[in-house]
Sequence to fold (290 residues):
Amino acid sequence: KLKMIFNGNQLANTILKTLRITSEIKPKLGICLVGDSPASKSYVNRKLKACQEINVDAEVFNFSENVGQEQLIKHIQQMNHDGILVQLPLPSHLNKLDIIHSIPYEKDVDCLHMHNLQRILVYGELCEMLPCTPAAVLQILDYYDVNVIGKKVTMIGRSFLVGLPLSLLLQKRNATVTVCHRETLNLDQHIMNADIVISAAGHPKLVRNVKQGAIVIDVGISQGEKKGKIVGDVDFDVVKNQASLITPVPGGVGPMTVCMLMRNLCNIWKKKQGQPVYINPKLSDAYLND
Ligand code: ADP
Fold:
């Protein structure tokens, strides 16, 4: 079987071209950034660059590390942007959920507000937005026409941002999903058993061997042994010889995630104007059987 290494930058650029805004009026993204962690700053910069590429306006609001909860919430409530996001993680004195929920749910470009998650993940409603990293993974599967119906998917990680929503979206597509986490016994067996392995744990070399021909999506991000180098969860050099399709880190899921954020922003804006929005074709009613 043909072995493929996914190029996230290439597909992200192709999709960004289709999102480019050509009209006089255009959407505006507002980003709240708390503190000055280099990682958060670099994520925000990537989002700003993507906004530039699709010709939408963006504004960053910087807050000090010790900004008060009420002060931040008041600011968010006064923002008049079409899409609003708060760069995560937040310092521990802030209540992440209360802050996310202060964003009006129709402006929640990261798609983390309980209203949006409930519509999508619990009721299976087709929405103008999807959580960005799960959407990126689905988009990669769609790009390669991977049919997940009845397939065994092992999802490593159950986080609010990735593992939990993605495992539910894959179930809505009629995959058989096994969710693994910190306390899972015999993780390697669950990995070897899977047709599709998706890892979002943030542990280098957690995935060392997969079934011959498996599809491997690496959502992990950690510091590599060399300073400044980021690595995924998958032992890429070994697993690339076993997998039929594999995503590298960096340059795999990451660029696609930013791209999905832009799609959410454009969709939110189009919906507001009564224009048709892009809905992922494989999240159609036919798949939502229960
Ligand atoms: P992210 O938001 O990027 O998914 P988190 O650090 O919030 O990252 O979540 C990490 C997830 O990975 C958790 O759900 C945790 O249970 C899971 N995890 C961490 N270590 C392991 C491990 N050794 N084996 C399996 N799952 C793990």
About this structure: The two ends are 34 Å apart (CA to CA).
